[in-house]
UniProtKB/TrEMBL annotation:
This is Transposase. InterPro entries: Transp_IS110-like_N, Transpos_IS110. Residues 4-156 form the Transposase IS110-like N-terminal domain. One of its GO terms (molecular function) is DNA binding. It comes from the Bacteria. It comes from Lactobacillus helveticus CIRM-BIA 951. GO terms for biological process: DNA transposition. It holds the Pfam family DEDD_Tnp_IS110.
């Protein structure tokens, strides 16, 4: 049985083939048609491929192997790290591909149960949806962190007043009054009416008035680090 260990990177992979005769061959290939032809030239009828799952980077490789009906195992990165940790002191892509191949050659029966299962169509759809959901959550978190840091410069009291920055009312007030100078000359009633008209009627006016009162009073004593016409404010509002 031939074993190919692959260390997947962005756009290309390094691979090591260990043949039945214990011959070691290293090569690399890009994740495109010509690159997969290179990989295909090393695949025989009795070849098994093993690699660590790397999310979107390994997606093209996984798709190619499934279409070609090549037997392969995707090893959870944490599991792979635990099993070959002692061999990772001098990490190189070629070295890692050899370790994966060697791991499969010597402990295939043991690691099979720790590999990601090759899902059928319905489960594959759920896996994709789950992956996209996690990516969206990370994206939302980055945006929120950016917003929080911007408010800390422009109107830090807003971060204290609104613990839930995802709320519709909070986001609308951030957009309209992310700097205390935007409230200069406005009465509390005028501010409340403007916010009320811009948000869903499902939010009770008393709730809006309560938050507006806190923001309106905080603006009187706030000392922002940036002026109202700064680029920081423009970016915050457009975001």
């Amino acid at each position: 049985m031939n074993i190919i260990g692959i260390d997947v990177s962005q756009g290309e992979s390094h691979a090591t083939l260990i043949t039945e005769e214990a011959e070691k061959i290293t090569f690399k290939f890009k994740h495109n048609k010509s690159g997969f032809q290179i990989l295909s030239s090393y695949i025989k009828f009795n070849t098994i491929i093993i690699f660590e799952t790397t999310g979107v980077y390994s997606a093209q490789l996984t798709t190619y192997l499934k279409r070609k009906k090549v037997k392969f195992y995707e090893l959870n990165p944490l599991e792979a790290k635990l099993r070959i940790a002692s061999l990772r002191r001098n990490k190189t892509d070629k070295n890692d591909s050899f370790k994966l191949a060697l791991l499969s050659k010597t402990k295939l029966a043991e690691i099979k149960n720790h590999c990601n299962k090759q899902s059928s169509s319905p489960y594959e759809s759920l896996r994709i949806l789950s992956l996209r959901y996690k990516q969206l959550i990370k994206c939302r978190t980055r945006i929120l962190n950016f917003l929080r840091s911007s408010l800390e410069l422009a109107f830090p009291e807003l971060n204290q007043i609104f613990k839930n920055a995802y709320a519709v009312l909070a986001l609308q007030i951030f957009r309209m009054y992310c700097h205390p100078d935007f409230l200069v000359g406005l009465t509390l009633k005028e501010m409340t009416d403007r916010v009320y008209k811009s948000v869903s009627r499902r939010i009770h006016k008393n709730v809006i008035q309560n938050y507006c009162a806190q923001v309106w009073l905080a603006a009187k004593d706030s000392y922002p680090a940036v002026p109202a016409d700064s680029l920081e404010i423009e970016i915050t509002v457009t975001k």
